[in-house]
Specification:
By secondary structure, the chain is an all-alpha fold. It has 16 helices and two strands. The protein is 75% helix and 2% strand. Helix 3 packs antiparallel against helix 4.
Length: 436
Amino acid sequence: MSSIFESLKFHNYRIWFFAALVANTGTWMQRVAQDWLVLRILTDDSASATGLTTALQFLPALFLSAHSGLIADRVDQRRFLMVTQSAMGVISALLAVDVLAGRAQLWHVYVAAFATGVAAAYDSPARQIFVARMVPAGDLSNAVGLNSASFNAARLLGPAAAGLVIAWVGAGWVFLVNALTFLFPALALATMRIAELYDVPRAERAGGQVREGLAYVRRRSDLIVIIVVISVVSMLTLNFQVTMAAMVRSVFAMESDAYGTVSSIFAIGSLAGALWAARRRSPRVRTVIVASFFLGVFTLLMAVMPTYPLFAVSTIPVGLCVLTVLTGANQTVQLSTAPTVRGRVVSLYMMCLLGTTPIGAPLIGRVSDAWGPRAGLAVGGVAALAASLAAVVWARRHWHVGLAYSATRPHLSTVGPRERALPPGAASPGDADGDR
Protein backbone atom coordinates (compact mmCIF):
# COMPACT_ATOMS: atom_id res chain seq x y z
CA MET A 1 0.00 0.00 0.00
CA SER A 2 2.93 2.38 0.62
CA SER A 3 3.59 2.61 -3.12
CA ILE A 4 0.06 3.88 -3.67
CA PHE A 5 0.62 6.85 -1.37
CA GLU A 6 4.28 7.43 -2.25
CA SER A 7 3.80 11.08 -3.23
CA LEU A 8 2.33 12.02 0.16
CA LYS A 9 5.84 12.02 1.65
CA PHE A 10 6.41 15.38 -0.06
CA HIS A 11 5.17 18.23 2.15
CA ASN A 12 3.77 20.47 -0.58
CA TYR A 13 1.93 17.66 -2.33
CA ARG A 14 0.59 16.35 0.97
CA ILE A 15 -1.08 19.62 2.01
CA TRP A 16 -2.39 20.10 -1.53
CA PHE A 17 -3.82 16.57 -1.61
CA PHE A 18 -5.88 16.99 1.56
CA ALA A 19 -6.96 20.54 0.71
CA ALA A 20 -8.08 19.31 -2.71
CA LEU A 21 -9.98 16.46 -1.05
CA VAL A 22 -12.03 19.00 0.93
CA ALA A 23 -12.62 21.24 -2.10
CA ASN A 24 -13.51 18.28 -4.33
CA THR A 25 -16.04 17.09 -1.76
CA GLY A 26 -17.70 20.49 -1.93
CA THR A 27 -17.63 20.40 -5.72
CA TRP A 28 -19.41 17.05 -5.82
CA MET A 29 -21.94 18.27 -3.28
CA GLN A 30 -22.68 21.25 -5.52
CA ARG A 31 -22.98 19.11 -8.65
CA VAL A 32 -25.67 17.00 -7.03
CA ALA A 33 -27.43 20.07 -5.61
CA GLN A 34 -27.27 21.87 -8.96
CA ASP A 35 -28.71 18.89 -10.85
CA TRP A 36 -31.44 18.45 -8.26
CA LEU A 37 -32.26 22.17 -8.19
CA VAL A 38 -32.76 22.16 -11.95
CA LEU A 39 -34.48 18.78 -12.19
CA ARG A 40 -36.89 18.96 -9.24
CA ILE A 41 -37.31 22.60 -8.15
CA LEU A 42 -36.88 24.82 -11.20
CA THR A 43 -38.34 22.40 -13.78
CA ASP A 44 -40.74 19.48 -13.87
CA ASP A 45 -38.15 16.66 -14.06
CA SER A 46 -36.58 18.01 -17.25
CA ALA A 47 -33.51 15.98 -18.22
CA SER A 48 -33.02 18.40 -21.13
CA ALA A 49 -32.65 21.36 -18.76
CA THR A 50 -30.22 19.34 -16.63
CA GLY A 51 -28.24 18.47 -19.74
CA LEU A 52 -28.17 22.12 -20.83
CA THR A 53 -26.86 23.15 -17.40
CA THR A 54 -24.07 20.59 -17.69
CA ALA A 55 -23.35 21.77 -21.23
CA LEU A 56 -23.03 25.41 -20.16
CA GLN A 57 -20.66 24.43 -17.37
CA PHE A 58 -18.30 22.70 -19.80
CA LEU A 59 -18.82 24.89 -22.89
CA PRO A 60 -16.00 27.34 -21.97
CA ALA A 61 -13.49 24.48 -22.08
CA LEU A 62 -14.27 24.05 -25.78
CA PHE A 63 -13.35 27.62 -26.66
CA LEU A 64 -10.83 28.64 -24.01
CA SER A 65 -8.65 25.56 -23.47
CA ALA A 66 -6.06 26.42 -26.12
CA HIS A 67 -5.50 29.86 -24.57
CA SER A 68 -5.66 28.59 -20.99
CA GLY A 69 -3.00 25.97 -21.74
CA LEU A 70 -0.67 28.63 -23.12
CA ILE A 71 -1.24 30.74 -19.99
CA ALA A 72 -0.50 27.70 -17.80
CA ASP A 73 2.82 27.16 -19.64
CA ARG A 74 3.84 30.79 -19.04
CA VAL A 75 2.74 31.75 -15.52
CA ASP A 76 3.56 30.82 -11.94
CA GLN A 77 0.91 28.13 -11.57
CA ARG A 78 0.79 28.41 -7.77
CA ARG A 79 -0.27 32.07 -7.79
CA PHE A 80 -2.53 31.59 -10.78
CA LEU A 81 -4.41 28.74 -9.04
CA MET A 82 -5.04 30.95 -6.02
CA VAL A 83 -6.96 33.30 -8.33
CA THR A 84 -8.98 30.61 -10.17
CA GLN A 85 -9.88 28.70 -6.99
CA SER A 86 -11.03 31.92 -5.31
CA ALA A 87 -13.12 32.86 -8.36
CA MET A 88 -15.01 29.55 -8.26
CA GLY A 89 -15.62 30.04 -4.54
CA VAL A 90 -17.13 33.49 -5.14
CA ILE A 91 -19.46 32.18 -7.86
CA SER A 92 -20.70 29.41 -5.54
CA ALA A 93 -21.28 31.95 -2.75
CA LEU A 94 -23.36 34.19 -5.04
CA LEU A 95 -25.49 31.24 -6.16
CA ALA A 96 -25.96 30.19 -2.52
CA VAL A 97 -27.26 33.65 -1.61
CA ASP A 98 -29.61 33.60 -4.63
CA VAL A 99 -31.07 30.20 -3.73
CA LEU A 100 -31.32 30.86 0.02
CA ALA A 101 -33.10 34.16 -0.67
CA GLY A 102 -35.69 32.26 -2.73
CA ARG A 103 -35.00 34.27 -5.89
CA ALA A 104 -33.27 31.59 -7.95
CA GLN A 105 -34.48 31.13 -11.51
CA LEU A 106 -33.37 28.66 -14.13
CA TRP A 107 -31.40 31.25 -16.08
CA HIS A 108 -29.53 32.20 -12.89
CA VAL A 109 -28.25 28.62 -12.64
CA TYR A 110 -27.30 28.68 -16.31
CA VAL A 111 -25.24 31.87 -15.80
CA ALA A 112 -23.55 30.46 -12.68
CA ALA A 113 -22.74 27.19 -14.46
CA PHE A 114 -21.21 29.09 -17.39
CA ALA A 115 -19.17 31.39 -15.12
CA THR A 116 -17.88 28.39 -13.17
CA GLY A 117 -16.93 26.80 -16.48
CA VAL A 118 -14.87 29.84 -17.49
CA ALA A 119 -12.91 29.76 -14.22
CA ALA A 120 -12.50 25.97 -14.46
CA ALA A 121 -11.25 26.20 -18.06
CA TYR A 122 -8.27 28.25 -16.84
CA ASP A 123 -7.90 26.35 -13.56
CA SER A 124 -7.73 22.87 -15.06
CA PRO A 125 -4.52 22.90 -17.16
CA ALA A 126 -2.65 24.91 -14.52
CA ARG A 127 -3.76 22.48 -11.82
CA GLN A 128 -2.82 19.47 -13.92
CA ILE A 129 0.73 20.58 -14.68
CA PHE A 130 1.34 22.11 -11.22
CA VAL A 131 1.62 18.54 -9.92
CA ALA A 132 5.02 18.31 -11.65
CA ARG A 133 6.27 21.13 -9.39
CA MET A 134 5.30 19.35 -6.17
CA VAL A 135 6.87 15.91 -6.82
CA PRO A 136 9.99 14.69 -8.69
CA ALA A 137 9.58 13.29 -12.20
CA GLY A 138 9.76 9.68 -11.00
CA ASP A 139 6.69 10.15 -8.80
CA LEU A 140 4.58 12.10 -11.29
CA SER A 141 2.50 9.10 -12.40
CA ASN A 142 1.74 8.25 -8.77
CA ALA A 143 0.79 11.87 -7.99
CA VAL A 144 -1.56 12.06 -11.01
CA GLY A 145 -3.22 8.84 -9.85
CA LEU A 146 -3.58 10.17 -6.30
CA ASN A 147 -5.18 13.32 -7.66
CA SER A 148 -7.83 11.11 -9.22
CA ALA A 149 -8.15 9.21 -5.94
CA SER A 150 -8.74 12.48 -4.09
CA PHE A 151 -11.35 13.54 -6.63
CA ASN A 152 -13.17 10.25 -6.37
CA ALA A 153 -12.92 9.88 -2.61
CA ALA A 154 -14.72 13.21 -2.65
CA ARG A 155 -17.18 11.74 -5.13
CA LEU A 156 -17.85 9.02 -2.58
CA LEU A 157 -18.49 11.51 0.22
CA GLY A 158 -19.97 14.52 -1.56
CA PRO A 159 -23.13 13.17 -3.23
CA ALA A 160 -24.30 11.31 -0.13
CA ALA A 161 -23.69 14.39 2.02
CA ALA A 162 -25.46 16.58 -0.54
CA GLY A 163 -28.49 14.29 -0.61
CA LEU A 164 -28.81 14.50 3.16
CA VAL A 165 -28.31 18.27 3.31
CA ILE A 166 -30.84 18.85 0.51
CA ALA A 167 -33.38 16.68 2.31
CA TRP A 168 -32.79 18.43 5.65
CA VAL A 169 -32.33 22.12 4.85
CA GLY A 170 -32.41 22.57 1.06
CA ALA A 171 -30.01 22.97 -1.86
CA GLY A 172 -28.94 26.54 -1.04
CA TRP A 173 -26.85 25.47 1.93
CA VAL A 174 -24.95 23.01 -0.25
CA PHE A 175 -23.79 25.87 -2.48
CA LEU A 176 -22.63 27.80 0.58
CA VAL A 177 -20.66 24.81 1.89
CA ASN A 178 -18.99 24.45 -1.49
CA ALA A 179 -18.00 28.13 -1.49
CA LEU A 180 -16.31 27.72 1.88
CA THR A 181 -14.36 24.62 0.80
CA PHE A 182 -12.42 26.67 -1.78
CA LEU A 183 -10.65 28.37 1.13
CA PHE A 184 -8.69 25.16 1.75
CA PRO A 185 -6.74 24.92 -1.56
CA ALA A 186 -6.18 28.68 -1.53
CA LEU A 187 -4.68 28.42 1.96
CA ALA A 188 -2.60 25.37 0.99
CA LEU A 189 -1.15 27.21 -2.01
CA ALA A 190 -0.36 30.25 0.12
CA THR A 191 1.48 28.23 2.79
CA MET A 192 3.55 25.93 0.56
CA ARG A 193 7.32 25.72 1.03
CA ILE A 194 8.46 27.59 -2.06
CA ALA A 195 12.04 26.29 -1.79
CA GLU A 196 10.77 22.70 -2.08
CA LEU A 197 8.90 23.24 -5.35
CA TYR A 198 10.60 21.62 -8.34
CA ASP A 199 11.64 23.77 -11.28
CA VAL A 200 9.75 23.14 -14.51
CA PRO A 201 10.71 25.00 -17.72
CA ARG A 202 8.26 27.73 -18.69
CA ALA A 203 7.43 28.75 -22.23
CA GLU A 204 8.86 32.12 -23.19
CA ARG A 205 6.57 34.63 -24.86
CA ALA A 206 6.69 34.18 -28.63
CA GLY A 207 4.43 34.12 -31.63
CA GLY A 208 2.69 30.97 -32.83
CA GLN A 209 2.86 29.09 -29.51
CA VAL A 210 -0.67 27.73 -29.75
CA ARG A 211 0.13 26.41 -33.23
CA GLU A 212 3.29 24.87 -31.78
CA GLY A 213 1.17 22.86 -29.33
CA LEU A 214 -1.15 21.72 -32.13
CA ALA A 215 1.81 20.69 -34.29
CA TYR A 216 3.28 18.70 -31.40
CA VAL A 217 0.03 16.73 -31.01
CA ARG A 218 -0.31 16.16 -34.78
CA ARG A 219 3.07 14.40 -34.81
CA ARG A 220 2.06 12.08 -31.96
CA SER A 221 -0.32 9.37 -33.17
CA ASP A 222 -0.48 7.92 -29.63
CA LEU A 223 -1.86 11.21 -28.30
CA ILE A 224 -4.29 11.47 -31.21
CA VAL A 225 -5.72 7.99 -30.50
CA ILE A 226 -6.21 8.91 -26.83
CA ILE A 227 -7.85 12.24 -27.67
CA VAL A 228 -10.25 10.67 -30.19
CA VAL A 229 -11.36 7.93 -27.79
CA ILE A 230 -11.73 10.42 -24.94
CA SER A 231 -13.73 12.81 -27.13
CA VAL A 232 -16.30 10.17 -28.09
CA VAL A 233 -16.58 8.74 -24.57
CA SER A 234 -16.87 12.19 -22.98
CA MET A 235 -19.45 13.38 -25.48
CA LEU A 236 -21.84 10.44 -25.32
CA THR A 237 -20.94 8.15 -22.40
CA LEU A 238 -19.81 10.30 -19.46
CA ASN A 239 -23.17 12.02 -19.00
CA PHE A 240 -24.01 10.21 -15.79
CA GLN A 241 -25.00 13.51 -14.14
CA VAL A 242 -27.92 13.57 -16.54
CA THR A 243 -28.75 9.88 -16.92
CA MET A 244 -28.41 8.75 -13.29
CA ALA A 245 -30.55 11.62 -12.00
CA ALA A 246 -33.16 10.80 -14.65
CA MET A 247 -33.04 7.08 -13.83
CA VAL A 248 -33.61 7.76 -10.12
CA ARG A 249 -36.56 10.07 -10.81
CA SER A 250 -38.23 8.75 -13.95
CA VAL A 251 -37.60 5.00 -13.73
CA PHE A 252 -37.46 4.32 -9.99
CA ALA A 253 -39.55 7.34 -8.77
CA MET A 254 -37.18 8.14 -5.89
CA GLU A 255 -35.87 11.38 -4.35
CA SER A 256 -32.61 13.26 -3.75
CA ASP A 257 -31.29 10.92 -1.06
CA ALA A 258 -31.47 8.02 -3.52
CA TYR A 259 -29.61 10.05 -6.15
CA GLY A 260 -26.92 10.93 -3.60
CA THR A 261 -26.63 7.27 -2.60
CA VAL A 262 -26.25 5.95 -6.13
CA SER A 263 -23.67 8.66 -6.89
CA SER A 264 -21.64 7.55 -3.87
CA ILE A 265 -21.89 3.88 -4.85
CA PHE A 266 -20.71 4.83 -8.33
CA ALA A 267 -17.72 6.49 -6.64
CA ILE A 268 -16.69 3.20 -4.97
CA GLY A 269 -15.67 1.89 -8.37
CA SER A 270 -14.17 5.27 -9.30
CA LEU A 271 -12.03 5.34 -6.16
CA ALA A 272 -10.83 1.78 -6.79
CA GLY A 273 -9.85 2.75 -10.33
CA ALA A 274 -7.99 5.83 -9.09
CA LEU A 275 -6.02 3.87 -6.48
CA TRP A 276 -5.14 1.28 -9.11
CA ALA A 277 -3.91 4.11 -11.33
CA ALA A 278 -1.72 5.43 -8.50
CA ARG A 279 0.21 2.12 -8.57
CA ARG A 280 0.70 2.31 -12.33
CA ARG A 281 4.18 3.60 -13.17
CA SER A 282 4.03 3.27 -16.95
CA PRO A 283 0.57 4.09 -18.36
CA ARG A 284 -0.25 2.76 -21.81
CA VAL A 285 -2.52 3.63 -24.69
CA ARG A 286 -3.94 0.09 -24.59
CA THR A 287 -5.17 0.73 -21.03
CA VAL A 288 -7.39 3.53 -22.32
CA ILE A 289 -8.72 1.44 -25.22
CA VAL A 290 -9.47 -1.71 -23.18
CA ALA A 291 -11.07 0.29 -20.36
CA SER A 292 -13.24 2.12 -22.89
CA PHE A 293 -14.46 -1.21 -24.26
CA PHE A 294 -15.47 -2.50 -20.83
CA LEU A 295 -17.01 0.87 -19.98
CA GLY A 296 -19.35 0.36 -22.93
CA VAL A 297 -20.21 -3.19 -21.83
CA PHE A 298 -20.97 -2.26 -18.22
CA THR A 299 -22.90 0.88 -19.19
CA LEU A 300 -25.20 -1.25 -21.36
CA LEU A 301 -25.69 -3.64 -18.43
CA MET A 302 -26.49 -0.69 -16.15
CA ALA A 303 -29.11 0.50 -18.64
CA VAL A 304 -31.15 -2.71 -18.32
CA MET A 305 -31.07 -3.17 -14.53
CA PRO A 306 -34.69 -3.71 -13.42
CA THR A 307 -34.52 -2.46 -9.81
CA TYR A 308 -32.88 0.42 -7.95
CA PRO A 309 -30.56 -1.81 -5.83
CA LEU A 310 -29.31 -3.67 -8.92
CA PHE A 311 -28.90 -0.38 -10.77
CA ALA A 312 -26.89 1.07 -7.88
CA VAL A 313 -24.59 -1.97 -7.67
CA SER A 314 -24.08 -1.97 -11.45
CA THR A 315 -22.58 1.52 -11.25
CA ILE A 316 -19.49 0.17 -9.41
CA PRO A 317 -17.77 -1.47 -12.44
CA VAL A 318 -18.83 1.52 -14.55
CA GLY A 319 -17.08 3.85 -12.11
CA LEU A 320 -13.98 1.63 -12.18
CA CYS A 321 -13.84 1.75 -15.97
CA VAL A 322 -14.48 5.50 -16.10
CA LEU A 323 -11.52 6.23 -13.84
CA THR A 324 -9.28 3.76 -15.64
CA VAL A 325 -10.03 5.51 -18.93
CA LEU A 326 -9.53 9.01 -17.54
CA THR A 327 -6.45 8.44 -15.39
CA GLY A 328 -4.80 6.26 -18.03
CA ALA A 329 -5.28 9.00 -20.59
CA ASN A 330 -4.18 11.78 -18.23
CA GLN A 331 -1.07 9.94 -17.07
CA THR A 332 -0.01 9.03 -20.61
CA VAL A 333 -0.49 12.58 -21.86
CA GLN A 334 1.43 14.17 -18.99
CA LEU A 335 4.28 11.66 -18.73
CA SER A 336 5.06 11.50 -22.45
CA THR A 337 4.88 15.23 -23.21
CA ALA A 338 7.85 17.62 -23.12
CA PRO A 339 7.58 20.01 -20.12
CA THR A 340 7.76 23.20 -22.22
CA VAL A 341 4.56 22.32 -24.12
CA ARG A 342 2.83 20.24 -21.44
CA GLY A 343 0.30 22.94 -20.55
CA ARG A 344 -0.80 23.37 -24.15
CA VAL A 345 -1.00 19.63 -24.79
CA VAL A 346 -2.91 19.02 -21.55
CA SER A 347 -5.27 21.88 -22.41
CA LEU A 348 -5.99 20.35 -25.84
CA TYR A 349 -6.69 17.05 -24.12
CA MET A 350 -8.94 18.81 -21.58
CA MET A 351 -10.69 20.69 -24.39
CA CYS A 352 -11.68 17.38 -25.95
CA LEU A 353 -12.52 15.81 -22.57
CA LEU A 354 -14.65 18.68 -21.27
CA GLY A 355 -15.46 20.61 -24.43
CA THR A 356 -17.38 17.77 -26.06
CA THR A 357 -19.76 17.59 -23.08
CA PRO A 358 -21.77 20.65 -24.24
CA ILE A 359 -22.52 18.72 -27.42
CA GLY A 360 -23.33 15.39 -25.83
CA ALA A 361 -25.11 16.36 -22.60
CA PRO A 362 -28.12 18.11 -24.25
CA LEU A 363 -28.31 15.30 -26.82
CA ILE A 364 -28.39 12.60 -24.14
CA GLY A 365 -30.88 14.72 -22.19
CA ARG A 366 -33.19 14.87 -25.20
CA VAL A 367 -32.83 11.13 -25.82
CA SER A 368 -33.67 10.51 -22.15
CA ASP A 369 -36.73 12.77 -22.32
CA ALA A 370 -37.97 11.25 -25.58
CA TRP A 371 -37.27 7.53 -25.07
CA GLY A 372 -36.35 7.28 -21.40
CA PRO A 373 -33.06 7.41 -19.48
CA ARG A 374 -32.34 3.76 -20.30
CA ALA A 375 -32.01 4.80 -23.94
CA GLY A 376 -29.65 7.61 -22.94
CA LEU A 377 -27.41 5.13 -21.11
CA ALA A 378 -27.56 2.71 -24.05
CA VAL A 379 -26.39 5.39 -26.49
CA GLY A 380 -23.39 6.04 -24.24
CA GLY A 381 -22.57 2.35 -23.95
CA VAL A 382 -22.66 1.79 -27.71
CA ALA A 383 -20.50 4.90 -28.27
CA ALA A 384 -17.76 3.64 -25.90
CA LEU A 385 -17.77 0.22 -27.58
CA ALA A 386 -17.56 1.76 -31.04
CA ALA A 387 -14.71 4.11 -30.08
CA SER A 388 -12.62 1.34 -28.54
CA LEU A 389 -13.16 -1.11 -31.42
CA ALA A 390 -12.31 1.58 -33.98
CA ALA A 391 -9.09 2.34 -32.05
CA VAL A 392 -8.17 -1.36 -32.06
CA VAL A 393 -8.69 -1.63 -35.81
CA TRP A 394 -6.64 1.54 -36.42
CA ALA A 395 -3.81 0.36 -34.12
CA ARG A 396 -3.59 -3.04 -35.82
CA ARG A 397 -3.31 -1.38 -39.23
CA HIS A 398 -0.92 1.45 -38.38
CA TRP A 399 1.07 0.21 -35.39
CA HIS A 400 1.05 -3.48 -36.42
CA VAL A 401 -0.03 -4.52 -32.94
CA GLY A 402 -1.52 -7.99 -32.40
CA LEU A 403 -2.53 -10.30 -29.54
CA ALA A 404 -0.74 -13.39 -28.24
CA TYR A 405 -2.09 -16.04 -25.83
CA SER A 406 0.01 -17.76 -23.18
CA ALA A 407 -1.08 -21.29 -22.20
CA THR A 408 1.34 -21.58 -19.25
CA ARG A 409 -0.13 -18.55 -17.52
CA PRO A 410 -3.40 -17.86 -19.33
CA HIS A 411 -3.56 -14.23 -20.44
CA LEU A 412 -3.57 -12.13 -23.58
CA SER A 413 -0.64 -9.81 -24.31
CA THR A 414 0.10 -7.42 -27.12
CA VAL A 415 2.86 -8.09 -29.63
CA GLY A 416 4.45 -5.52 -31.88
CA PRO A 417 5.83 -2.02 -31.25
CA ARG A 418 6.08 -0.92 -27.63
CA GLU A 419 3.36 1.36 -26.34
CA ARG A 420 4.76 2.46 -23.00
CA ALA A 421 4.88 6.19 -22.41
CA LEU A 422 8.36 7.64 -22.02
CA PRO A 423 9.47 9.61 -18.94
CA PRO A 424 8.68 13.34 -18.97
CA GLY A 425 10.78 15.15 -21.52
CA ALA A 426 12.28 11.96 -22.95
CA ALA A 427 10.04 11.78 -26.00
CA SER A 428 10.45 13.99 -28.98
CA PRO A 429 7.61 14.63 -31.39
CA GLY A 430 9.30 12.58 -34.03
CA ASP A 431 10.11 9.42 -32.10
CA ALA A 432 7.03 8.98 -29.94
CA ASP A 433 4.94 7.17 -32.53
CA GLY A 434 6.82 3.95 -32.01
CA ASP A 435 6.04 3.94 -28.31
CA ARG A 436 2.55 2.74 -27.58
